[in-house]
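Friendly challenge for the regulars: who can give me the structure tokens for this chain first? No prize, just bragging rights.
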Amino acid sequence: MGRVVAVVVRAMLLALLVTLWPGASTGRLAGWPAPSVAQAGDDWCEIDPLLLIQTPAGNTVPVFYLTGAYGLEHAAATQLAQATYAVEPDAGGTKVTFKVTVPDDLFGKGFPTRVTVSSGPWGTLQVHGKASGTSGAPMSLEFYLDVP
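First reply, four minutes later:
Bragging rights claimed.
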């Protein structure tokens, strides 16, 4: 219940921000890059949280995981996605096994989902991996970080 409340609060704050500060809807706040433009028929709803990966040697590596669900009605499901990772040392770096699950929702079960893990927001900079799947089932991918 607490996570649902957090999602609702975020949506309300975003709506207030856009109302009070029209530039917020274009992403042009404090030097933020402009978001990609949605095209007709582009019905993916995505969220791009930051994940701080702790390596076996104790280093912290930030990555973004762009998580999407096909259909705008699944916006809340993307917000409720659960991510986990496991690390192990590998040839002077770190092997990361990453999983994210977008839950089923009231609008459907087994709808298409996708994830892109990258070093920059919205799938920019170095892309570490991509996976696709369906809601209710984990999407899994492995990638290598050049950090011990």
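The chain has two domains: 1-31, 44-148. Residues 24-30, 34-41 have pLDDT under 50 and may be disordered. Your move, everyone else.
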